[in-house]
Amino acid sequence: MRPSEPILDERVARRTFAEAEELYTNRAAFAPINWVIAEPVFPELRVDRVDHEGRSIVGVILGLRNYDFLPASVRYVNPAGQPLSFADLAPRIRLYPAPAGGLPRQRIVEASSATGLPFLCRPGTFEYHTHVQHRGDRWDDHRGQISLQSVLTDAFDALVLPEL
Amino acid sequence: MATISVNCVINGKTIPETVEDHAALQALIEDVLKDAKATARPAADWTVRLDGKPLDHQGRLAAQGVTAGVSLFFSLGGSESGAA
Predict the structure, then answer these.
(1) Residue numbers in chain B where pLDDT is lower than 50
(2) What is the complex's ipTM, to 2 decimals?
(3) CB distance B84–A122 less than 8 Å?
(4) For labelling alongside A12, which of A93, A136, B17, B21 has CA 20 to 30 A away?
(5) pLDDT, position B78
(6) What confidence tens digit (pLDDT) does each residue in A36-91 have?
(7) Is the separation of the CB atoms in A33 and B52 below 8 Å?
(8) Alpha carbon of A23: minimum distance to chain B alpha carbons (Å)
(9) For residue A100, how many other CB atoms are within 10 A of its CB?
(10) CA atoms of A66 and A8, how far apart (whole Å)
């Protein structure tokens, strides 16, 4: 199943798209962390992490066609809006310490079977909850709790970006 | 010791809070979650960031650089673990 495949009645999806519209309405609040939230156009919300001159370092597009019946789909894009490959992202991927020692871990995985693009392997994302390894962690248990702000925070935190 | 106002950005909304700057972050988190009606998850599940850096829940606000007028950003999920 692809995240853009319409499953949810569009009238319902447009109502829950309000969460993206609210983020945009409150976009000034995110200026201290250099997020630029573009005006959302159903079914997508784009947020860029910019530098001090306002230039995009990396963008994240949330696919919300079936939100929140299904979680948001996350893809990374360049300033022109083109999807970034794993090779594009690799130099910036953050490594996290493994919980009990062992090899450091990263949150961006090479290719989603649903999209073919590098994906953010975190609860709250379409790519995580539809991955065979995480089918036991149901989105149903997170709906209404993991907000789009949390997903976006995870998406940017998965990369090493210039300090604010 | 002073009373300060901070902006807490959680679930896409901004919630202004007035706090004692010597208080631990934990107390502020609990207040914000109540005010944001986001109590389904415990405070320990939330990461709070200032200037992009996660704060220590047990640390005092002023000691962690939380001063009047700053914005604190709340997100669910730990800041440390890798891919789940």
Answers:
(1) 81-84
(2) 0.92
(3) yes
(4) A136
(5) 60
(6) 999 999 999 999 999 999 999 999 999 999 999 999 999 999 999 999 999 999 99
(7) yes
(8) 5
(9) 5
(10) 5
DSSP type of residue A51: -
Judge whether A151 and A62 are in contact, CB under 8 Å: yes
User: Does residue A101 carry a pLDDT above 80?
Assistant: no
The verdict on B67 touching A (C-beta cutoff 8 Å) is no
pTM confidence score:
0.94
Q: Where are the beta strands (DSSP E) in chain B?
A: 3-10, 13-20, 46-50, 53-54, 71-76
Q: Do A153 and B13 touch (CB under 8 A)?
A: no
Digit-coded pLDDT (tens) for A129-144: 998 888 899 999 999 9
Place of tokens 């959302």: A40
Buried b (16+ CB within 10 A) or exposed e, A122-133: bbbbbbbbbbee
The Cα of B53 is separated from the nearest Cα of chain A by a number of Å equal to: 9
Residue A72 CA to residue A69 CA, distance in Å, equals: 9
Q: Of A61, A47, A58, A48, which Cα lies nearest the Cα of A3? A: A61
For chain B, the first-to-last Cα distance in angstroms comes to 41
Q: Which of B76, B75, B77, B71 is nearest to B14 (CA)?
A: B71
